[in-house]
Amino acid sequence: xxxxxxxxxxxxxxxxxxxxxxxxxxxxxxxxxxxxxxxxxxxxxxxxxxxxxxxxxxxxxxxxxxxxxxxxxxxxxxxxxxxxxxxxxxxxxxxxxxxxxxxxxxxxxxxxxxxxxxxxxxxxxxxxxxxxxxxxxxxxxxxxxxxxxxxxxxxxxxxxxxxxxxxxxxxxxxxxxxxxxxxxxxxxxxxxxxxxxxxxxxxxxxxxxxxxxxxxxxxxxxxxxxxxxxxxxxxxxxxxxxxxxxxxxxxxxxxxxxxxxxxxxxxxxxxxxxxxxxxxxxxxxxxxxxxxxxxxxxxxxxxxxxxxxxxxxxxxxxxxxxxxxxxxxxxxxxxxxxxxxxxxxxxxxxxxxxxxxxxxxxxxxxxxxxxxxxxxxxxxxxxxxxxxxxxxxxxxxxxxxxxxxxxxxxxxxxxxxxxxxxxxxxxxxxxxxxxxxxxxxxxxxxxxxxxxxxxxxxxxxxx
Length: 463
Prior knowledge:
Family: Belongs to the IPK1 type 2 family.
Catalytic activity: 1D-myo-inositol 1,3,4,5,6-pentakisphosphate + ATP = 1D-myo-inositol hexakisphosphate + ADP + H(+)
GO molecular function: ATP binding; inositol-1,3,4,5,6-pentakisphosphate 2-kinase activity
Strand content: 5-15%
Protein name: Inositol-pentakisphosphate 2-kinase
Number of strands: 10
EC number: 2.7.1.158
Number of helices: 16
Structural class: alpha+beta
């Protein structure tokens, strides 16, 4: 980027989270993530030095910090304001920092040989994939019902969403192809903010928080159909919506869970080796899968928030007595080799020390980042596909790449809030007995028939 020639009209609103607003360049396919200067460097360091080591460097794009002209930031803020969701507009974009994070646009990868069909990209926010087994868990229901499913009841009860998602992270992380397929079905039926589909960099399918707008499955089918028409279906221009969605889900499964070669889609220079299928005697995810790496990082939370909070209080009291120790214990970074050493050399048993408490707090914060990360799967119809392939009965061939993003460090001071939220979620679930409140919408009728749902037998494995 030529910083002295920055023009806000070359950038468009892409989305935003709790701390960042994202815009994408109309041609260069890069993202710019506005943040405060000290925080943004911490994000880069945390991603490149901590999460990259745990999740695999090939999946991570840490980006680089860039300095922007203040006038450009001001004009950009004005330009995107009307495009922002109303419920986000209570937060004001910082127009004085002049600092941003420059990243590749993972929704629209650059190709060596451009094709006539724009790339597809699936974004999945998988959430926590295991049940806690800590002795500190005070409510037995937490060991039987996953956090995501209980949180769904809480969100509907508080009006955040109109209806409950039937997606369960335990299915996606199960290592059983049938359950994984089932999980993606439910994400399509009720995506909320856990599932999006992009085509050529444009979002074509998602939910809007608090919106009454219904999902347009017909529009999604219109977008997807050209990618999955082949053989007689292509000749007759006929393919049922169910068949299109099943092929789409199957390809999503393959790219996330099958062992296959790496496809060269710059800048997503990744390699994925994942579960071919659940074979006899096989349980869980193979150790070389992207989901396994995410799950293992999530499971650094060994104590649950209930067991972690007393250790947080121990650290907090120590820092009140010795404020300068905050830097020594790297509470706010820097996220370097010394931080990783604290993370990895934590004693198994609590010896009552501040060092032990600090290490467990660091582990918990890293685990929370893994629980809140997103997976991007970019799919591109292979440019080497010949005419006879289109006319054959073989399914379409895709090049693909997988990336992990949303890897910001979770603040130390957010732990008490996490405990309060956990208590509210569990209390709500126990109080209602898992029933939805009056006035809420039932789960959507769905894109698959009742008979199809009954065809799925869930297999549960010991953890």
